[in-house]
């Protein structure tokens, strides 16, 4: 079965041929490949072609695909059954591990996706404060919950529907969007609406309008604003958690949120999310308190085993230093290639995540990111794909490295970039 044949079959039965929009390659053109297997830094499609993978299942695979430690943990767990519907020991160890590694997480609730985590965190913020409004940032993506599909990033931005049909106006009106990295705009908004805002949710490093780090003092400024106005500060660390540092972006920038959400890496590749934070807030969640949130498969024993094995791996000494150094090798290398070819290009990187932009400007805002040349990105993406390098198939997604990416993999990637950059510019 070829990629094309599979996509033809898929398109008849799955909207756009996929189960999650950006996978369809719609904005970059062409058809997606179907992965048959993955190992370390590589994916192999059903036709046997190998790709160096900078998507990493959109973040979870920080130790590389099919890591033996994670696979063995899952195999052991599976032998004892797939789901129990009662508490299981892995949930307790997971809660102990997360709260130890991320001190702002005094209590935690496991869920099944990042979307569930953010929806639940917002309900908690509203329930705990008795307020209705929430603040989010243009170009930030927090899953597909109704409250978040307002000026959203990721696929919503890629496909030009940042505010989705189907979200009731009454709901969208409660979401107040702000420009990212603009503290003054936040101050003005809080001066007007502060007493009605339950929570402010932010990707502490934006990763869904490509990769944009917070400017110095920005997160601290938001922390002060939220404290002054009795608004809960929610860090959506679904992407940044255990990615930019062991303790997430909150450890890297030294800012303590009231609530945080996690996903991706904590599931080791299984469908897992989590939210948590201050104890007196989390004690308001059912059945300890009245704010309802539940899940048939939440805390699933196999998922806990995978996540715990992954969290074990990232605690190895020097893990994040090595990852950051390799990421730098890649972004500096790509910059040198682009400079050599006279291609307008800039990069961002934080820990093991990075962004590539076809523009001369250093990108620090949504306006900058969306002003970069997406047509040039698309040509670059296709040229790299042809040469066996898989980048995120959208100009508005961050890229990810894993500890399995070797110096040789990066050298091969830069060789491919050398051959591709000139063509990307020529158009
Ligand atoms: N928050 C952020 C920051 C994300 O990047 C994502 C997904 N990429 C989500 C939430 C939603 O997670 P999920 O796709 O698991 O629902």
TrEMBL record:
Entry keyword annotation includes Isomerase: yes
Keyword hit for Isomerase: yes
Chain positions with N6-(pyridoxal phosphate)lysine modification: 264
Subunit structure comment from the entry: Homodimer.
Listed cofactors: pyridoxal 5'-phosphate
Catalytic activity: (S)-4-amino-5-oxopentanoate = 5-aminolevulinate
Pathway(s) this gene product operates in, as recorded in its UniProt entry: Porphyrin-containing compound metabolism; protoporphyrin-IX biosynthesis; 5-aminolevulinate from L-glutamyl-tRNA(Glu): step 2/2
Pfam families in UniProt: Aminotran_3
Entry's localization field: Cytoplasm
EC code(s) of this entry: 5.4.3.8
Keyword terms: Cytoplasm, Isomerase, Porphyrin biosynthesis, Pyridoxal phosphate
Name of the encoding gene: hemL
InterPro entries assigned: 4pyrrol_synth_GluAld_NH2Trfase (IPR004639), Aminotrans_3 (IPR005814), Aminotrans_3_PPA_site (IPR049704), PyrdxlP-dep_Trfase (IPR015424), PyrdxlP-dep_Trfase_major (IPR015421), PyrdxlP-dep_Trfase_small (IPR015422)
Protein name according to UniProt: Glutamate-1-semialdehyde 2,1-aminomutase
GO MF, one example: glutamate-1-semialdehyde 2,1-aminomutase activity
Family, per entry: Belongs to the class-III pyridoxal-phosphate-dependent aminotransferase family. HemL subfamily.
Gene3D superfamilies (UniProt xref): Aspartate Aminotransferase, domain 1, Type I PLP-dependent aspartate aminotransferase-like (Major domain)
Primary enzyme class: isomerase
Domain of life: Bacteria
């Amino acid at each position: 079965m070829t990629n094309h044949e599979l996509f033809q079959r898929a398109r008849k039965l799955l909207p756009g041929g996929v189960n999650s929009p950006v996978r369809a390659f719609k904005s970059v053109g062409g058809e997606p490949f179907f992965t048959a297997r993955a190992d370390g830094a590589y994916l192999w499609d059903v036709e046997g072609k190998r790709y160096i993978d900078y998507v990493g299942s959109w973040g979870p695979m920080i130790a590389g695909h099919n890591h033996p430690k994670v696979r063995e943990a899952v195999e052991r767990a599976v032998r004892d059954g797939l789901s129990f519907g009662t508490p299981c020991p892995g949930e307790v160890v997971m809660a102990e591990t997360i709260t130890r590694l991320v001190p702002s997480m005094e209590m935690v609730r496991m869920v099944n996706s990042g979307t569930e985590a953010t929806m639940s965190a917002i309900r908690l913020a509203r329930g705990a404060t008795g307020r209705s409004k929430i603040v989010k940032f243009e170009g930030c993506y927090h899953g597909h919950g109704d409250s978040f599909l307002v000026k959203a990033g990721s696929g919503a931005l890629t496909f030009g529907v940042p505010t989705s049909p189907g979200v009731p106006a009454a709901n969208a009106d409660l979401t107040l969007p702000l420009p990212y990295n603009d503290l003054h705009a936040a101050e003005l908004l809080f001066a007007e609406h502060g007493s009605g805002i339950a929570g402010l949710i932010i990707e502490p490093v934006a990763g869904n309008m490509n990769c944009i780090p917070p400017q110095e003092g920005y997160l601290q400024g938001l922390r002060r604003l939220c404290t002054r106005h009795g608004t809960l500060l929610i860090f959506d660390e679904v992407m940044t958690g255990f990615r930019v540092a062991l303790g997430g972006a909150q450890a890297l920038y030294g800012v303590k949120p009231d609530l945080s959400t996690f996903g991706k890496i904590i599931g080791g590749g299984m469908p897992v999310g989590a939210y948590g934070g201050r104890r007196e807030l989390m004690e308001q969640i059912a059945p300890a308190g009245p704010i309802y949130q539940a899940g048939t498969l939440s805390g699933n024993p196999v998922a806990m085993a995978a996540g715990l094995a992954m969290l074990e791996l990232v605690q190895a000494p020097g893990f994040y230093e090595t990852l950051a150094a390799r990421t730098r090798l890649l972004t500096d290398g790509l910059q040198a290639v682009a400079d050599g070819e006279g291609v307008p290009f800039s990069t961002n990187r934080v820990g093991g995540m990075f962004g590539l932009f076809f523009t001369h400007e250093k990108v620090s805002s949504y306006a900058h990111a969306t002003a970069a040349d997406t047509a040039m990105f698309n040509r670059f993406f296709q040229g790299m794909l042809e040469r066996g390098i898989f980048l995120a198939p959208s100009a508005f997604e961050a890229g990810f490295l894993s500890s399995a990416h070797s110096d040789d993999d990066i050298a091969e990637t830069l060789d491919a970039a050398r051959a591709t950059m000139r063509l990307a510019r020529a158009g």
